[in-house]
Amino acid sequence: MSEFTIPLHKPFWGKEEEKAAVLALRSGTGVGDLSYSEELSKYLCKYLSVDFVLPTGSGTAALELACAILLKRGNEVIMPSFTFSSCANAVLLVGAKPMFADIDINSYNIDVSEIEKKITPRTRAIMVVHYAGMACDMDKIMAIARNNNLFVIEDAAHALGSKYKGDFLGTIGDVGCFSFHGTKNAASGEGGAFVTNDKKIFKMAEIIREKGTNRSSFMRGERKKYSWVRVGRSLILSDILSAIALEQVKKLDKITTLRRKNANYFLKKLKRFSSKIILPKETFDTSSNWHIFSLRTPAVLRDKMIKGLRTYGIEASFHYLPLHTSAMGNKLGYRKGDLPVTEEVSASLIRLPMHPNLKKSEMDYIAEAIGKIL
User: Fold this and answer.
1) Residue 112's pLDDT is what?
2) Contacts (Cβ under 8 Å, ≥6 apart) of 4
3) Count of domains forming the chain
4) What's the pTM value of the predicted model, to 2 decimals?
5) Does residue 361 share a domain with residue 335?
6) Residue 2: inside a domain, yes or no?
7) What is the pLDDT of residues 47-71, one digit of tens each?
8) For residues 323 and 97, is the Cβ–Cβ distance under 8 A?
9) SS3 letters across 201-230
10) Does position 265 have pLDDT exceeding 60, yes or no?
11) Are both 216 and 339 inside the same structural domain?
12) Does residue 265 share a domain with residue 191?
């Protein structure tokens, strides 16, 4: 049980998820790519208006699948340092190198002006991260990619349900990677999804995801036997978790609506502190799912603010420590001071509780506590 009265995250689970999990337990062995996995893929294809969706064991697994298909040893991938280690790990696991870029001070997403500066003959892809469900500047990023013959991998782990100029994030680049982690808007505990409109990429993904075999086509009745055809990995999502994820994505519009309502209320309540804190805002034509509600204070006050909120029973937290200043970042040749905006944001950002069940009285209480601490 959480020590906090108001937790950062709370899954929007109900009887539908319980029933689906029980039915999945009773109807099969729980392995992946059974009926619930198939239904999840079909539902997401229709919802996102994409051609191909493959459920994966995690958002990390989706990123690893994308990199295994699109990258080769010696390639470089331009990506933000302000993200989770999964992004860099996926690149390194195929023998490629992450090239960290700074972020935009307002959106906390990759700074488009930094991308072209880092392109070399070895650059193969741009990996964008839609932080907190806020869109990167995708028109400019896709134009850069086309002009330089680069792939675009969208880490949309935070962004299921968010849109950019009417298109769902995760469907604009060559590959989109989603997460159903227990902290995400649509949560099945663990899980993710790999999304693409490219049939060739999809066919390769099917094989790599299924341990390097052509078992998926065998299961569709397209061949009499299946065999090992290339190096692969085990990246499939259990049908039990697919059943839960399916019920969650069916509720996604409701989840997004409730989060937007809560975010707008929070913004209204905290506006009076705007001389002392920096509030989040939607940028680059985003319709955000408000996966995270973050604010920034001067770095000298950040830790005091987090500690103070926690004494009130509010689970406030910092977020990413920059990858380029980590021990692994140092091994890759990066040092503190290389990406000043990333370092500034990381040192000053505070995450506040945000989930569909958050009550107005709880947001009032959080705002009151912030006022007292300030």
Assistant:
1) 97
2) 310, 313, 314, 315
3) 2
4) 0.96
5) yes
6) no
7) 999 999 999 999 999 999 999 999 9
8) no
9) HHHHHHHHHECCECHHHHHCCCCCCCCECC
10) yes
11) no
12) no
Answer whether residue 284 is part of any domain: yes
pLDDT score of 4? 78
Return the residue matching tokens 């950062």.
Answer: 8
In this structure, the answer to whether residues 166 and 276 fall within a common structural domain is no
Whether 295 contacts 302, CB under 8 Å: no
**The 3-state secondary structure of the chain, one letter per residue:** CCCCCECCCCCCCCHHHHHHHHHHHHHCCCCECCHHHHHHHHHHHHHHCCCEEEEECCHHHHHHHHHHHHCCCCCEEEEECCCCHHHHHHHHCCCCEEEEECECCCCCCECHHHHHHHCCCCEEEEEEECHHHCCCCHHHHHHHHHHCCCEEEEECCCCCCCEECCEECCCCCCEEEEECECCCCCCCECCEEEEECCHHHHHHHHHHHECCECHHHHHCCCCCCCCECCCCCECECEHHHHHHHHHHHHCHHHHHHHHHHHHHHHHHHHHHHCCCCECCCCCCCEECCCCCEEEECCHHHHHHHHHHHHHCCECCECCCCCHHHCHHHHHCCCCCCCCHHHHHHHHHEEEECCCCCCCHHHHHHHHHHHHHHC
